[in-house]
């Protein structure tokens, strides 16, 4: 039994990947696996189940067995919309799950204790939300969200024009769980072709620090 409440994992892959020339960044290859498969492999053992937030034709993710859930509001307003989609999906399809953990589909080295430490941080700091950090950087899209806040988040997106995860999270109270950046940053994300080259070099080091 896990030492924390049942948690749904949500991999966010709803963006347009403009800096990578468009397309689905999560499907880029890192060694023998796609970025998506790498994230899924690390996240799945930590969660009751895992879903994929992505938009448009689901056929392009046919090699993944993940349930694909599109944004539930139009216009691709960013990662908050993906978090909202996961919260609303959990409420309908997994009513016994009260928490969602989110991570982008381009962070292939997320730690194996991500969910444990996020829950521990929110409990220790008595905050309703938690996000990950490494070094001096907070990673707001890598966070823990209560399903009960789904209505508030929908209102923030549709009526208040909130777009930044940080803004919405800090309005409710945000705990932080921090990881070291050595021997590598577990939240290294891939935004450019150069980042993908660097990630391929990091992959072997990451596997030796499982």
From TrEMBL:
Its EC number is 2.7.7.77. It comes from Microvirga makkahensis. Its main location: cytoplasm. This is Molybdenum cofactor guanylyltransferase. GTP binds at residues 12-14, 25, 53, 71, 106. GO terms for biological process: bis(molybdopterin guanine dinucleotide)molybdenum biosynthetic process. One of its GO terms (cellular component) is cytoplasm. The keyword GTP-binding applies. Belongs to the MobA family. Its cofactor is Mg(2+). Transfers a GMP moiety from GTP to Mo-molybdopterin (Mo-MPT) cofactor (Moco or molybdenum cofactor) to form Mo-molybdopterin guanine dinucleotide (Mo-MGD) cofactor. GO terms for molecular function: GTP binding; metal ion binding; molybdenum cofactor guanylyltransferase activity. The N-terminal domain determines nucleotide recognition and specific binding, while the C-terminal domain determines the specific binding to the target protein. Keywords: Cytoplasm, GTP-binding, Magnesium, Metal-binding, Molybdenum cofactor biosynthesis, Nucleotide-binding, Nucleotidyltransferase, Transferase. InterPro entries: MobA-like_NTP_Trfase, Molybde_CF_guanTrfase, Nucleotide-diphossugar_trans. Residues 9-166 form the MobA-like NTP transferase domain. Monomer. It holds the Pfam family NTP_transf_3. It catalyses: Mo-molybdopterin + GTP + H(+) = Mo-molybdopterin guanine dinucleotide + diphosphate. It is found in: Cytoplasm. Mg(2+) binds at residue 106.
């Amino acid at each position: 039994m896990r030492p924390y409440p049942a948690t749904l994992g949500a991999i966010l892959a709803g963006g347009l990947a403009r800096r990578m020339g468009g397309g689905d960044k999560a499907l880029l290859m890192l060694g023998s696996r796609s970025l998506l498969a790498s994230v899924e492999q690390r996240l799945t053992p930590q969660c009751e189940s895992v879903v994929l937030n992505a938009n448009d034709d689901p056929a392009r993710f046919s090699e993944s067995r993940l349930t694909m859930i599109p944004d539930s509001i139009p216009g691709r307003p960013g990662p908050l919309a993906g978090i909202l989609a996961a919260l609303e999906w959990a409420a309908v399809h997994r009513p016994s799950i009260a928490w969602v953990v989110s991570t982008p589909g381009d962070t292939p080295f997320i730690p194996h204790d991500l969910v444990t430490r996020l829950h521990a941080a929110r409990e220790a700091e008595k905050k309703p939300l938690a996000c990950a950090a490494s070094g001096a950087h907070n990673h707001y899209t890598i966070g823990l969200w209560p399903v009960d806040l789904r209505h508030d988040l929908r209102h923030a997106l549709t009526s208040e024009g909130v777009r930044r995860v940080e803004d919405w999270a800090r309005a409710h109270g945000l705990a932080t769980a921090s990881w070291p950046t050595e021997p590598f940053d577990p939240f290294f994300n891939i935004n450019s072709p150069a980042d993908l080259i660097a990630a391929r070099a990091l992959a072997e080091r990451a596997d030796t620090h499982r």
